[in-house]
Write a structure and sequence with these properties.
6-stranded parallel beta sheet, about 550 residues, about 40% helix, single chain, Rossmann fold
Amino acid sequence: MSETISGGHLVAKALKAEGVEVIYTLCGGHIIDIYDGCVDEGIEVIDVRHEQVAAHAADGYARITGKPGCAVVTAGPGTTDAVTGVANAFRAESPMLLIGGQGALSQHKMGSLQDLPHVDMMAPITKFAATVPSTERVADIVSMAFRECYHGAPGPSFLEIPRDVLDAKVPLEKARIPEAGRYRASTRQAGDPEAIERLADLLAHAEKPAILLGSQVWTCRATDAATGFVRSLNVPAYMNGSGRGTLAPGDPHHFQLSRRYAFTEADLIIIVGTPFDFRMGYGKRLSPTATVVQIDLDYRTVGKNRDIDLGIVGDAGLVLSAAAQAASGRIGDAAAKRKAWLEELRTVETQAYEKRLPRQHSDARPIDPYRLVHEINEFLTEDTIYIGDGGDIVTFSGQVVQPKSPGHWMDPGPLGTLGVGTAFAMAAKQARRDKEVLCLFGDGAFSLTGWDFETMVRFDLPFIGIIGNNSSMNQIRYGQAAKYGEDRARVGNTLGDIRYGEFAKLLGGHGEEVRDPSEIRPALERARESGKPSLINVWVDPEVYAPGTMNQTMYK
């Protein structure tokens, strides 16, 4: 008799071929044959307490490793619970595969347990969504889903696998099992050569250039190309999203607090891997007289919401390297002449920093959020992965916290999803056990998915968690006060005074309560030394708001 193989084992073989080392899951009867296959293929199974966490963890794994993440959930509510994580990955351009269970094909439209139209629901927030129609094609369609994850800008895919398709066994020779490295092409595009030449000319003649290095710089693993570009051409660089850390703090081309000034005064602005969405004022924050160049993996993003002078579709690393090389032979002494421009920006940068410094050193009680994020920034090492999960408190951190290495900054991305922190920490530590993982939560954000702190304890995934606790959804509270007055500022946004340090202890981790600013650093040190998942609950002043919160256009 010929050897047979089940659908679940075919899934595992396809995951192995893609290089997936772990799946994040919450168990269900529809999907357990995948677990059996993963055991045989040496793929780790991390079971969480909520499917949203599984999806966020798959997203986080992809960001950290550069390989696609994978979450496996059961049908119906298992899949709908994961929708938020998939949507977040979609807006953040993160390659992951969600596999959902489904009732048996033999019971199609009969009202089987947890039957829902998953594919219809997932199609708008994925690059590919499909049902696997037969056991023979399971591995084939899994590889197809991974292929689509990397079409243009990366993103998520979804597959539902009916229970009878997954559990059935077929002759091994009838199943198509794509071979690792042989079922999809390189996704790196070097950009239109004529456009590269035009960019080189613009760089050669610009007196006041500036560049924004966005998340695609990290997606493309283009750190070396980006740093070579800014240094060889003497261009000041700003970073956002996962692009943070491309240049280390203290690098002469690293700028952060002078971006608005630079984008007003520059004569050439290069936007790399960042859409003109709300974070960029839909492009309106750029000088109307500047020459604007946009570089992106996705053709549809280039020139969206704002006219540009030059658009280049391609891999950030290949495009920046080619442009730097092309410009090097024609730039003459233009790079040296930009010294005055960099000094001008450094003056603006220093003034902004010094204006805020008293609050960063404030001894006020309740604790000024600027003091908390300052202490966190001072605490980071070159091997600390920083994760931000919250509203107002994380807006404070965006001004102050500077990762010291590339790929060491994680935030939800443009969907603004709260609750990613525990899942991102889980994925980051599981994928990079050699790294320290630190996550700053708002108390509202932690509350959404915080029970999976226990998963971190169970799988021995130590991390340093800090909660900026103001017992409020303070970003929303500010908006309500601004719109409706202080007497209606606390409708629907006020939380209990929760001692999250005690919660951490309850679940087997390390926990502390901090009310005095002088105790922040010692508490962080003790968390580091504990070797456990930890929560340092820092009580911050609820009556102060981040400038970014107060400037949000939705409240005006």
